[in-house]
Each structure stands twice: as C-alpha cells, then as structure tokens.
Amino acid sequence: MEQDTSMITWHHSPAHLFVPNAFYIVTASTLCHQPLFNSPQKLHILQSTLFEIMQAYNWRLQAWAVFSNHYHFIAQSPEDSSSLKPLIQRFHSQTARAINVLDGSKGRKVWFQYWDTCLTYEQSYLARLNYVHNNPVKHGLVASAEQYPFCSATWFNERAPDALRRKLATIPYDNIDVPEVHCC
C-alpha cells in the first residue's frame, strides 16, 4: 500500500519525511541541558502540557518521559503529519512561558532544538517504545520505570494487552541510538 508523503526542508536539518498516520519519536533538550524543570510541579506542567497539545493537534501519544532537562515521546501522527513542527513550537512556547513565570525569568530561552524520526518498521517502534518507557532507569532516577511518575511505563502496563507487554519485555533497548540534542 502506497502512502502519500510530503517533503519539507527546514533550514537547520535535512528534509523531513512526513507520513500520514505514522509513528514518530521526538527528543528535545533544554538550552545547554540546564535542569530547568527541576521540581515535581514543573515536571507536572511539562507532562500535562504535552497531553494537552497532543490532543489539540490530534496526535496519539504512545509513550513519553519528561525530565528536568529533556524529554522523549512517541506519537502517531494524524492525517496531516506536517503538524509536528507547529505542535512542538506550541509545546515549547507554552512550557517555557509557564516555568519562566514560576522562576521569575521572563523571556529566558528554555528549549534548544528537537530531533524527530519517523519509525518505519515494527522492531524499531518497539525498541524505541521500550527505550522511552525505561529512560528514567537509564538516567538512574529510579530502579523500575513504573516508579517514575513522569513517564508512560505505568500507564502502558495498566492498559496494553498482555501479549504486547510480554513482547515488549523481550525487546532490547539499551543499544538504541536516540541522539541527544546538544548546544553547549
């Protein structure tokens, strides 16, 4: 089955392939990896804004993990998958304004850039799904991903079919190459 795709060239990166109804992984970091979302209150703002923006743009969130200085998510695009760029712009703008108000730092630049890729085959999707769920463990924040309240591990385990949970548990994720976005 052929899928309609469109190419959009951005000045800072190679052309992006946007595929309707496809799965994407997105990673972004704060400017110079500063731990700006350094409290449960700020992490809650980051996570709840992610949920709100995904719904507003009709993207179906599959996995997420938000941290003091970066985030990852996997989502399925709607028919107009080119909405990813405005989705990220709105997400970054809203969360930056919110924590800048909390910190009394009006106008401070919060986010650097983001990286995205379209996941084109099942094994890649499953490995990255496992990677995102287990990212809090990778960063040494918790012993089990379900202990971290700002990721999708518990949500996934409560809702995913048993067969999918068992399959995902067999998929290695420790050698996944998810580039970090660096600026400093």
Q: How would you characterize this protein structure?
A:
This protein has helices at residues 40-56, 84-103, 122-133, 135-138, 153-159, 162-169; strands at residues 6-8, 16-18, 23-30, 60-66, 70-76, 111-119. A hairpin with a 3-residue loop joins strand 4 (60-66) and strand 5 (70-76). By secondary structure, the protein is an alpha+beta fold. It has a single domain (21-169), classed as Alpha-Beta Plaits. It is built from six helices and six strands. Helix 1 runs antiparallel to helix 2. The strands form two sheets. Strands 4-5-3-6 form a four-stranded antiparallel sheet, with helices on both faces. A two-stranded antiparallel ribbon has the order 1-2. InterPro entries: RAYT_transposase, Transposase_17, Transposase_17_sf. Residues 19-135 form the Transposase IS200-like domain.
What's the CATH topology name? Alpha-Beta Plaits
Q: Which stretches are low in confidence, meaning pLDDT under 50 for 5 or more residues running?
A: 1-14
Q: How does the overall form come out from the CA principal axes?
A: globular
Question: What's the architecture, going by CATH?
Answer: 2-Layer Sandwich
Instruction: Give the count of helical stretches.
Output: 6
Distance between the termini: 44 Å
Overall pLDDT metric:
87
Number of domains: 1
Topology as H/E string?
Answer: EEEHEEHEHHHH
CATH class: Alpha Beta
CA-based gyration radius:
16 Å
CATH superfamily: Transposase IS200-like
Report the sheet-strand fraction: 15-25%
Number of strands: 6
GO molecular function: sequence-specific DNA binding; transposase activity
Protein name: Transposase IS200-like domain-containing protein
InterPro entries: RAYT_transposase (IPR052715), Transposase_17 (IPR002686), Transposase_17_sf (IPR036515)
Organism: Chloroflexus aurantiacus (strain ATCC 29366 / DSM 635 / J-10-fl)
